[in-house]
Design a protein that fits this description.
Elements lengths: L1 H18 L8 E9 L3 E5 L6 E4 L14 E8 L7 E4 H19 L3 E9 L2 E5 L3 E5 L18 E10 L4 E5 H19 L5 E10 L2 E5 L4 E5 L20 E10 L4 E5 L11 H4 L5 E10 L2 E7 L2 E6 L21 E10 L4 E5 L7 H8 L5 E9 L3 E7 L2 E6 L21 E10 L4 E5 L11 H4 L5 E10 L2 E7 L2 E6 L20 E10 L4 E5 L9
Parallel strand pairs: 3-5, 13-15, 18-20, 23-25, 28-30
Antiparallel strand pairs: 1-2, 1-4, 2-3, 4-5, 6-7, 6-9, 7-8, 9-10, 11-12, 11-14, 12-13, 14-15, 16-17, 16-19, 17-18, 19-20, 21-22, 21-24, 22-23, 24-25, 26-27, 26-29, 27-28, 29-30
Length: 528
């Protein structure tokens, strides 16, 4: 009986030994806080004895309480007091290391916080200290590029050396991988006509590049506004968040065309109803050219005022004489070409045509007093009234025969009395005469001059057949070549010149025909 009893005891001790879990040094296991002493914490790990941890190993010692579960590393199975030596810190390090190794193998990102700057880069807390080279920080993706310390970001693990506990991470690699992922996602889902949100990344003369979150799209300057735009920066600025329309997607070339103006209807679709011919409108001068001015009636709708439609009352050589950039003007719609997006306007037709009124007011034979606007070799231009012009041809200035100097009779700015002799509809002006309001000198020639009378005159013209001599203003006589001298004269120019004053004799006279024949023959030498 005793032998049997002894056998049973041996089996019980063996069973007890087998019931105690096996632990190895360096192993991480889960434990439970069973007692809190002044500076130590006793942890039950299911072994024959408890383990001990310094209270200072806990991140928040004041919050530790009995029953808390903790992961610990077995540093030693037994110290001199028979307690299992545990490490909270090493367990934590090992856990983080396993997590980083799994992320590295799977190619997954890890989250970390930039702690401080060191030579060549930064220290990043990813559970363990990791090195971030400066070149691997994608600054353009950071909200605050100046203060990177303290920022929490995602990183890709570039290098993992276990025996050195060396970890190298890259923010740039994560950003590029994420950008490529989003780009492929965008290319597979974007369709023409989609409304998408983006951020203005860059502005150029020809448009703006919009970051759609992984892929840039081009917003061409012509698709920014229905109105006139000199540069995209007039509407957009870098960093601005905008919503745009997808105009085209080229998946093969990875190009996306965007539009901003397409979010609103084309104003030219309703232009015929809004601006019928004859309607008075108001708009802003947005461009001035040598041939006219462009007036913006609303965003995207402009009309051209041709130079000929600027003014009734003045001769315009350049539109800038009448209007200035940015000026608000009134105009009348002349025509609308919806298909080609063209509109013709007139500024002058806002007011009545002064010519139409003037030609009814001044008929042929009407006496007009006007101001001399210009004196030219062609004649004298007279302002009959505001916006209405008249021309006095040279031969209608005075009764003087031959070449005439207009400046001798009229001066710019003075008033002159004339009579309307004709109406030039094509050039919208009156033909005037000054001399017809002056006495005709030929009416008194019969009383003043007789055949045989010797008089003095001035040569006004020399020809092959003789010379014309003015005996008084408006009265000329012909000195035939045969009457220049007693001998035969082959060339009158050898004897006479324009401007010479000579003595002549009247040999023929016909006031009705306005003719007078003169002679230098006889004792007279002719030229004084």
């Amino acid at each position: 009986m005793e032998l049997v009893k002894e056998e049973k005891v041996e089996n019980w001790e063996e069973l007890l030994e087998k019931s105690i879990p096996k632990i190895t040094e360096g192993q991480v296991i889960k434990g439970r806080v069973v007692q809190i002493l002044d500076n130590e914490v006793l942890v039950e790990i299911g072994y024959k004895s408890e383990g001990v941890l310094p209270l200072s190993d806990f991140e928040k010692p004041e919050e530790v309480k009995v029953g808390d579960e903790v992961d610990v590393l077995i540093e030693s199975r037994e110290d001199i007091e028979g307690m299992v030596v545990l490490s909270l810190e090493k367990a934590d390090i090992l856990k983080h290391w396993e997590r980083l190794r799994e992320a590295y193998r799977a190619g997954e990102p890890v989250k970390g916080k930039i702690m401080k700057r060191i030579k060549g880069g930064y220290v990043v807390d990813v559970g363990l200290p990791a090195f971030l080279p400066s070149s691997q920080l994608a600054l353009d993706e950071l909200k605050d590029r100046e203060n990177v310390i303290g920022q929490e970001l995602n990183f890709k693990i570039l290098k993992l050396t276990q025996w050195k506990r060396n970890v190298v991470v890259s923010h740039k690699a994560y950003v590029e991988e994420e950008r490529e992922r989003r780009k492929q996602e965008l290319l597979s889902t974007l369709e023409k006509g989609n409304l998408v949100k983006g951020r203005v990344k860059n502005i150029t003369d020809f448009g703006a590049f919009i970051d759609l979150g992984g892929l840039d799209g081009l917003l061409h300057i012509s698709d920014i506004s229905w109105g006139r735009l000199s540069h995209p920066s007039e509407v957009l600025k870098v960093g601005q968040e905008i919503e745009v329309v997808v105009l085209d997607v080229d998946r093969e070339k990875e190009r996306i065309s965007l539009g901003l103006k397409q979010k609103t209807p084309d104003p030219w679709e309703s232009v015929e109803e809004k601006y019928p011919p004859g309607k008075k409108v108001r708009g802003k001068v947005v461009n001035i050219t040598h041939y006219g001015v462009f007036v913006e009636l609303e965003e995207g709708v402009e009309g051209l005022v041709h130079i000929s439609e600027l003014s009734w009352r003045r001769k315009v050589t350049h539109p800038s004489q009448v209007v200035g950039m940015g000026e608000m003007v009134e105009a009348v719609v002349l025509s609308v070409d919806k298909e080609n997006k063209k509109m013709a306007l007139s500024i002058k037709q806002v007011e009545p045509d002064p010519w139409s009124q003037a030609k009814e007011k001044y008929t042929v034979g009407s006496v007009v007093i006007g101001k001399v606007k210009n004196v030219t070799e062609r004649g004298v231009y007279v302002e009959v009234e505001d916006g209405v012009e008249g021309l006095i041809p040279l031969y209608e200035i005075a009764w003087t025969q031959g070449p005439i100097d207009p400046a001798k009779y009229v001066k710019k700015g003075e008033n002159v009395k004339t009579i309307v002799t004709d109406i030039d509809e094509d050039n919208r002006r009156f033909i005037l005469s000054r001399r017809k309001l002056l006495p005709d000198p030929w009416e008194s020639v019969g009383k003043k001059y007789k055949v045989g009378m010797e008089i003095e005159g001035r040569v006004t013209k020399v020809t092959d057949f003789g010379a014309f001599v003015e005996v008084e203003e408006g009265v000329e006589g012909l000195l035939h070549v045969s009457q220049i001298g007693d001998g035969k004269i082959k060339n009158p120019r050898e004897i006479l010149s324009v401007g010479d004053r000579i003595k002549v004799k009247i040999i023929r006279l016909s006031p009705e025909a306005r003719r007078m024949g003169l002679s230098m023959r006889g004792d007279r030498k002719g030229v004084e």
